[in-house]
Design a protein that fits this description.
The complex is a heterodimer of chains A (210) and B (742).
Chain A: E1 5-10, H1 19-28, E2 40-41, E3 51-53, E4 56-58, E5 61-62, H2 77-81, E6 87-89, E7 95-97, H3 107-111, E8 118-119, E9 145-146, H4 152-155, H5 162-166, E10 172-176, H6 183-190, E11 193-194, E12 206-209
Parallel strand pairs in A: 1-12
Antiparallel strand pairs in A: 1-10, 2-5, 3-4, 6-7, 8-9, 11-12
Chain B: E1 5-10, E2 20-26, E3 29-35, H1 54-58, E4 68-70, E5 79-81, H2 84-101, E6 107-111, H3 125-133, E7 136-139, H4 145-154, E8 172-176, H5 180-183, H6 188-196, E9 200-204, H7 210-214, E10 217-219, H8 226-239, H9 245-251, E11 257-259, E12 281-284, E13 289-292, E14 305-308, E15 311-315, H10 316-324, H11 329-336, H12 340-352, E16 356-360, H13 370-383, E17 393-395, H14 407-410, E18 418-421, H15 423-426, E19 438-442, H16 446-449, H17 453-460, E20 466-471, E21 483-486, E22 495-498, E23 504-508, H18 521-531, H19 542-550, H20 553-557, H21 562-568, E24 570-572, E25 626-631, H22 645-650, E26 655-658, H23 660-665, E27 673-678, E28 681-689, E29 697-701, E30 711-712, E31 735-740
Parallel strand pairs in B: 6-7, 6-19, 7-18, 8-9, 8-16, 9-10, 16-17, 19-20, 20-21, 25-29, 26-28
Antiparallel strand pairs in B: 1-2, 2-3, 4-5, 4-21, 11-15, 12-13, 14-15, 22-23, 23-24, 25-31, 26-29, 27-28, 27-31, 28-30
Helix pairs in contact in B: 2-18, 4-13, 8-11, 8-12, 8-13, 11-12
The chains are: A alpha+beta (210), B alpha/beta (742).
């Protein structure tokens, strides 16, 4: 049976520490000014913003918000609109970009309702250097669109994405939703979950447990 | 191109989470860090947003790469490059001269907590040097108050709690004044596991912190009123008979008779039986007379007042009940602004949802009466029998006692170094501190992290003839040094790391060579020692020194060898699970909630007292109505990890967090430049309006350097006043006003 990879995030355990954000940065050498992952709070656009008025407050951390994280949709609008075929969906569910085919037209950025994609207008500025991160990660290019790859270079080695491995509170899970016995599948059966912009029919591969 | 290497090492700032890491080295450079496995998978794979930036901190353009000598005034920023020879000759020469003219104790060493490592941090070498040379070792009086209160009652040294992986068995967890969702990121997984097992989480904090947002119940309270809250809980537990009678009777001093006159425990010799013994006395219900506490077949009374040999005495439990009687939930509600029914719920839960316990943060520790809160917390734990079994938690500071260090290795001549609290340096007239001639600082950002920064700049530093700082970058403190020594990064050193939050000894591999001319701190000690006739005690490689350290009966008995430690990277020091306080090493062998030795100061039992400046009764409250908290966030550990580009991207600017209602009355809007000030100084920075902040309080994250502020520094606002009963800086016991900056 084909795999369907995705991520489950336990919002009860997420404390917005941003370790996943930095893990992604270092693993994939994401350029300065870009983030393939962000953590926001419900109460407002700034970090650590609660809802309510003191002392009647609540706060929830969403480590993949409506901005900047690819949901690796089952029905990805970005793939539909890509004129060159640079954006494609793999059989195991990952939505990827072939940078050699990307012409930087950015139709995909308009099509993606999650604002998951970023464009490298300038030569990517990297700190501390362009040669860090895992050896298998291709060098970032100017003039192309980039986004979360679900750490495809790690998955293909049987490892978990960096954001999953590094989460200190064990709030992130990676798994095959087509495998009934995977931890990811079991979690979805045992807890209430939701997705982002479910009504759009993109069928994202990210689930949030409450 | 060389093949990649993956080398296991450790990150060890004073977050105390001591994560073991795997560093990937490519062409001689570290290109990535990842979490490493640990012997217990429960602890395994820990890393955080900061540890991940070591690729940035290793190669930061701010790294000091050669020794420097001041070429202008202190703090002017003019430097002259010098050789290590020059630097060490100068420093050692100075030390020798001071020793000959005035005495070696006029050389001081201040090792902070920036590196929890044996050879290159504060764990062993500064102590060793001071012992051999006779220099004064300055101790840093921070985070000690609550712990001191707990230890006075429960006994022991260092911290002591069940190891974190046991916390999953707790049924009720109070996080008291700690923003552990930011500061103990690796430990909160156990709290969440406990909650998934059905535990109730209560967070007591004036601020709506991250962990408060996860709690079943968040209890916001008036700052500095925590002792009253604890006493209110004790009141309900005693009144409603919810205490663990068996535990209280058998394991605490509750039934011991106390002389009302002297306030000391009644002893055998006082009982008029003609004996000169020191044993404690109880009142036996069956024979209706005073008996020795450890006689067989007795039924000690828990309560009551009795006459023994003409001496009026009460049981310690009776005295506790009397004090607790002053703290009804209604009275405590008035003091704390916590509703009475919440106080009752807190108490009932603590007593009935057992086992459970308290994770004490360092918030209330930073008020003048922090020690009393520790006293009250330990009393609560004892009354409810929440000690010495799986699922109990009583954590403050380190979870475990200090690392055993072979004294013949650490103080080979048997000379114990003179240890003086840093507070003495603030007292200009103190004979203990002055005339201090030279100060050597390592693993510490003194001018950034200690209170009353202006005093350091205007009064303390000018008295020093020589000020030397060893560090990786030009810190706020190093800026004012006469000589700056470039210290190697942790990954550039071989070392042992002490874990305060896991029961391990950790081995740190050297991953890459020190950058430029930077040296491991151990090599710096070696260089100084050689010039001072002490070279024989600092000889050899890091491995040789580690082998000597491990050559001690306790490590041998546990089968911990250098080879095994290096191979695995970690060795357990305690049986699993480590359950603390199964016995009490107090004078009586019992929980001493009645602290006899404090009776002369009226502190034998906990009583509510307001903080010294932040209390509502302070006359400064009129001019300075806001309490300033210098909180600890997730982006730094103290003042380390500043200027890491990946972190700065997300957290670019210092902010003064203020409740929108307080901002409104002051005409302050989001992002306005504001000045927080009091009589001691000021700081100018941007305002951030947040509902997480309690009206009447403002928060500035500590650890920002002066360059991060528009003007001033938050440590200009703090003071050095300490409680006479315990040296411990009170960073939160501060009043300020905030206004729009001009």
């Amino acid at each position: 049976m084909l795999k369907r990879y995705g991520i489950v995030v336990d919002l009860k355990r997420c404390v917005g520490c941003n370790t996943c954000v930095i893990a992604c940065k270092t693993e994939n050498n994401v350029p300065l000014g870009l983030g393939w992952l962000r953590v926001l709070t419900h109460g407002g656009p700034q970090m650590d913003t609660p809802s309510g008025i003191y002392p009647h407050l609540s706060m929830e951390f969403i480590p993949i918000s409506c901005q900047h994280c690819c949901q690796h949709c089952n029905k990805p609008p970005c793939v539909l609109v890509c004129p060159t075929g640079a954006s494609y969906k793999r059989e195991d569910g990952l939505v990827l970009i072939d940078w050699d085919k990307c012409i930087g037209c950015r139709y995909c950025m308009i099509a993606c309702p999650y604002k998951a994609r970023m464009f490298n207008q300038e030569t990517p500025a990297q700190e501390p250097s362009s040669s860090i991160s895992s050896a298998e990660v291709p060098e970032h290019q100017r003039g192309v669109v980039e986004k979360c790859t679900l750490c495809v270079h790690r998955i293909d080695k049987g490892e978990e994405p960096a954001c999953v491995e590094c989460c200190p509170t064990r709030a992130r899970y990676f798994g095959d939703f087509n495998d009934h016995d995977s931890q990811a599948s079991k979690l979805l059966r045992s807890r209430t979950s939701s997705q982002l912009l479910e009504e759009l029919g993109t069928e994202p591969s990210m689930f949030f447990l409450r | 191109m060389q093949p990649e290497k993956i080398i296991r090492t450790v990150c060890s700032p004073n977050c105390m989470q001591t994560c073991s890491l795997l560093a990937t080295v490519r062409d001689g450079k570290v290109v990535k860090v990842a979490p490493a496995p640990l012997p217990d998978p429960e602890y395994g794979h820990r890393i955080c947003l900061k540890g991940l930036t070591h690729v940035e901190s290793l190669y930061s353009p701010s790294r000091l790469t050669h020794p420097m000598k001041r070429a202008g005034q202190r703090g002017e920023g003019k430097w002259e490059r010098i050789t290590w020879e020059d630097a060490l000759d100068t420093i050692a020469g100075n030390f020798r001269e001071i020793k000959d003219k005035f005495g070696s104790r006029y050389v001081g060493v201040l090792a902070g907590t920036g590196n929890a490592a044996l050879l290159n941090g504060q764990i062993a070498m500064p102590h060793k040097f001071c012992s051999l040379f006779g220099a004064t070792k300055y101790t840093v009086p921070i985070d000690l108050a609550v712990r001191a209160g707990i230890l006075a009652v429960l006994g022991g040294v260092g911290g002591c709690t069940n190891e974190a992986l046991d916390w999953v068995n707790a049924r009720n967890i109070i996080v008291w004044g700690g923003s552990i969702g930011e500061t103990r990121i690796q430990d909160i997984r156990f709290v969440f596991d406990a909650m998934e097992n059905g535990a109730k989480l209560v967070v007591i904090d004036p601020r709506f912190t991250t962990i408060a947002s996860k709690a079943n119940m968040w209890v916001p309270l008036k700052p500095g009123s925590d002792i009253a809250l604890a006493l209110g809980m004790i009141n309900v537990i005693l009144n409603d008979g919810l205490f663990d009678k068996e535990f209280v009777l058998k394991r605490t001093v509750a039934p011991f008779l106390v002389s009302k006159d002297t306030k000391f425990f009644l002893r055998e010799k006082d009982s008029g039986e003609g004996s000169s013994g020191e044993r404690y006395m109880i009142w036996d219900r069956q024979t209706n007379c005073a008996r020795l506490y450890d006689e067989p077949d007795i039924s000690p009374e828990l309560t009551g007042t009795y006459i023994v040999n003409g001496i009026e005495c009460s049981t310690a439990f009776e005295l506790l009940t009397e004090v607790a009687g002053e703290y009804s939930p209604e009275e405590v509600a008035r003091l704390t602004e916590v509703p009475a029914d919440i106080i009752r719920t807190l108490a009932v839960d603590f007593a009935t949802r057992t086992p459970g316990g308290i994770i004490a943060g360092f918030g209330p520790d930073r008020y003048y009466e922090g020690i009393t809160l520790g006293h009250a917390m330990a009393t609560l734990l004892a009354l409810t029998g929440n000690l010495g079994k799986s699922g109990t938690i009583h954590s403050s500071l380190s979870y475990f006692a200090a690392l055993p260090i072979n004294p013949s290795w650490q103080c080979p001549t048997g000379n114990r170094p003179l240890e003086v609290s840093l507070t003495r340096l603030y007292d200009m007239d103190s004979k203990e501190a002055y005339p201090l001639k030279a100060l050597y600082v390592m693993c510490h950002n003194t001018l950034n992290q200690l209170p009353n920064r202006r005093k350091w700049l205007d009064e303390i530093l000018p008295k020093l003839e020589l000020f030397v700082v060893a560090d990786r970058v030009l810190t706020t403190t190093a800026e004012y040094a006469d000589i700056v020594l470039p210290a190697a990064h942790w990954f550039e050193t071989e070392d042992i790391v002490r874990s305060s939050s896991m029961p391990y000894l950790l081995y740190r591999n050297k991953v890459v060579e020190p950058m430029g001319e930077s040296k491991p701190d151990f090599e710096i000690w070696k260089g100084l020692a050689q010039r001072l006739g002490l070279g024989q005690y600092f000889e050899g490689t890091a491995e040789a020194q580690i082998r000597q350290f491990l050559d001690a009966p306790n490590y041998q008995a546990q089968g911990i060898t250098f080879e095994k430690l290096k191979e695995v990277g970690a060795a357990r020091l305690r049986p699993k699970p480590d359950i603390a306080y199964q016995a009490f090493s107090t004078a009586s062998g019992r929980v001493e909630f009645y602290v006899e030795k404090w009776a002369d100061r009226g502190r034998e039992l906990p009583r509510h007292r307001w903080p010294i400046e932040a209390g509502p009764d302070n006359p400064l409250a009129v001019r300075y109505p806001l309490i300033l908290i210098s909180t600890h966030g997730r982006w730094r550990v103290h003042s380390q990890f500043v200027d890491m580009p990946w972190l700065s991207e997300l957290n670019p600017e210092a902010a003064c967090e203020i409740n929108p209602s307080d901002a409104r009355t002051r005409g302050i809007k989001e992002s306005d430049l504001v000045e927080a000030f009091n009589d001691r100084g000021k700081v100018i920075l941007r305002a951030r309006l947040s509902e997480t902040i309690r009206p009447g309080m403002v928060y500035i994250e500590q650890g920002w350097w002066p360059k991060h502020y528009t003007e001033g520094h938050h440590q200009e606002l703090t003071h050095e006043i300490v409680n006479p009963v315990l040296d411990n800086f009170n960073f939160f016991d501060i009043r300020v006003e905030v206004r729009k900056a001009g």
